Amino acid sequence: MPLENIQKIVLVLSGKGGVGKSSITTQLALTLSLQGHSVGVLDIDLTGPSIPRFFGIERSKVRQAVGGFVPVTVHDAQALPSRPAGATTTGQQIGPLSCMSLGFLLASRSDAVIWRGPKKTAMVRQFLTDVIWPTLDYLLIDTPPGTSDEHISLLENLLKQTTSPDSPPNQLAGAVVVTTPQAISISDVKKELNFCKKTGIKVLGVVENMAGFVCPNCSECTNVFSKGGGHAMAIEFGVPFLGSVPIDPAFVQLIEEGTRPVYPKGTVISGRDVGGHEEMTDGATSGTTGELLVDKYRDCSLYPLFDAMISEVVEGIQGRD
Question: Which residues bind ATP (predicted)?
């Protein structure tokens, strides 16, 4: 069985494009790794495969072996160095992280994927049957928006494989659903929650993304897109609300430029002071070669938010078992 090395599979879904599913998937994966779990990320957003870019491994290529594709390693299990002076967390043991995406198979990252539905479904099926994953605690699947061909093919193949006698119990753990606060986004994402209900997928929680903006020059977090729509939707559908995630330019800079996040004194996000590390500025903007993305992510203001979310998701999965 192709997925036999995987304990739990979690889907990241949304009925709307542009809500930040890949960003949420990336941070869920990094946080699971920081909690010591072995993690895989499967990107089935075939026309917009952005996971390689998020993890900084665009130039990597998958290897073929007997039985299928070998996913790309983001980092191995190891102990991270102690944090810089003034930070609160010491070194920690992280779990290994690997990825599979159509982006690794394209000749150029600018190549357009112009495929009809049958070829898309065939590719999704191949990703689920021909990837040789190492032993994983969690496999996160980053999906395209909507409830169309890729989703139907994904669920048909997952249900077929995860309900066999050899599968771990409740291997298909459920889904994390992503939305933004605006009413137009909420109306589309409600369709995804109905999709989960009709197909029997457990909703592990709702994440409200882009709920605020962290100013890089002052201590203010402003709700530019309003806030609370995701929470209200979760209450309406009777599913857990995992939290609100603001837009953090420091996280964007971490992904785009690889620089360690730094915040001015007095920056408070979700009641937590994340500023006051100006002494780290020089090291944050230079000398980052060789540092792991997961190590630098520990200094991101969003990490504590996702740490709490992951703890709730894991608790919900274990409660189901």
Answer: 15-22
